[in-house]
Amino acid sequence: MYFRYEKEIDMTQLQLTSYRDILRNKNFLTFWSGFTLSSLGDSLTRVALTWYVFEETKSAQALGILAIAYTAPILFGGFIAGPLIDRFSARKVMIWDNLIRGFAFFIIPILHVLDVLEVTHIYIFAAIYGSLMMISLAGGPTLIPSIVKEEQLETANAMETLIYTLSGVIGLPLAGFLVEWIGIANVVVIDAISYIVFALALARISVTEAGHHYSAEKQTTSFSVMDAARLMVVNKVILSTTLMFMAANIGLGVMTVYLPLVSDQIAPDSSSMYGTLLGFMALGEVISSSLAGTLVTRTTLGLRIAFAQVLSGLSIAFLLVGSAFWAAGAGLFLLGFFSAPLTIWAQTLRMQVIPTELRGRTFALLRTLMQGATPIGGALGGFLFPLAGLPMMIAISLLVIGLPGLAGLQVRELREAG
Predict the structure, then answer these.
(1) 349-374 pLDDT, tens per residue?
(2) What are phi and psi of 16, to 5 degrees?
(3) Alpha helices (runs of H) in 267-300, residue ranges in sequence order
(4) Cα angle value 133/99/45 (rounded, 5°)
(5) At the topology level of CATH, where does 19-209+218-416 sit?
(6) Which residues of 380-402 are buried (b: 16+ CB within 10 A; e: fewer)?
(7) What is the pLDDT of residues 129-160, one digit of tens each?
């Protein structure tokens, strides 16, 4: 049976490694630096393309379509990413992923120079991004255990989350200014270059042999996506956190539709305000991710996950105050602060129970399901907004994100996990 965690880990014997120590690991530092740069580029492009669609259409429905284009293809790409990672190694597959996306995104500025760039093209490139996105999302946690020690896992997971959050703090506000200063096309050029740089960084990494290089015969005959699915179903910790995070991503998908409109109420036609609001959320994520990576407490990881998700939902209540900059900024900061550690804590739990040879498929399946929930929220937001209005959409996202945390507290296995 691959679905029972036989090795007991005495957490009192594991000392969380300091950030300084883990950054002495040249392989991890190379990976983390490249991933950070690539994520920064993605943040710039996401804001630039979202604002382009908003300026061209002034339509919540168009923003909903963009959210779907960005995330719906994950459902397709996720089922391909896992087998590729397990078969050819996370490092090699991620190199090709970055090269393909880098050259693909160079096409956007070319279309802009030719004066033929349209909203439809943005949807297409967003779909390309979504199709390949799962390779990095599943490849990261698959690669990390092969370049760090076991006692470094929680700190490494915190650093991986910091990749996204630091890029948000820097990239999201910066994107708003860069769009006005150098234009959307040049912002996308920066992202395309970052992909190439990350591919070169991955090419320099060497991984450990233990548990990560195995024969193709063993892998192809012993494991399948169904093995990953069975592991998810029978393990209540994995199942409950997956369902909770899927619900949260639906709520965040709704937010992608209405947040530009919140920004427009505060400062009409200002991409800088939109980027600044996103930056508040990213700043909260950076602070809490930094704390989570070195936090030592008697509270179980499972309890932390459930309570943090409840507080994430409650943070959105600040947006109900109206077109007040301080309220929107505070709410988004708290949302980022309470939501960022969720991935860190859940990923640490998952790494303890997922067999090495099944990591690629399992992480791809889990993240496909969770990320695939975002387009549901985007579609829901785009459809309901004209009917319900902004306050109701904010309330919907609050409930969809927060209530599953209360449900998680009812799962004994989750409460006791970690």
Answers:
(1) 777 777 777 777 777 777 777 776 77
(2) -65, 130
(3) 271-292
(4) 55
(5) Growth Hormone; Chain: A; (1.20.1250)
(6) bbbebbeeeebeebbebbbebbb
(7) 888 887 887 788 778 888 877 767 767 777 77
On whether the CB atoms of residues 156 and 28 are closer than 8 A, the answer is yes
Do 163 and 39 form a contact (C-beta atoms < 8 A)?
yes
User: Distance between CA atoms of 53 and 63, rounded to whole angstroms?
Assistant: 7
Q: Which pairs with CB-CB distance under 8 Å and at least 24 residues apart come from 11-14?
A: 11/418, 14/150, 14/151
Provide the greatest CA pair distance for the chain: 62
Q: With a cut of 60, say whether residue 86 has pLDDT above it.
A: yes
Complete DSSP assignment for 368-393: HHHHHHHHHHHHHHHHHHHHH-HHHH
Nearest CA to 112 out of 179, 171, 197 is that of 179
Place of tokens 């199942």: 239
Contacts of 301 (CB under 8 A, 6+ apart): 345, 346, 348, 349, 417, 418
| Sequence ranges of the domains in the chain | 19-209+218-416
CB under 8 Å to 352, separation ≥6 — which residues?
5, 7, 9
Q: How many Å apart are CA 280 and CA 247, to the nearest integer?
A: 22
pTM, two decimals, is 0.62
Looking at residue 417, what DSSP letter applies? -
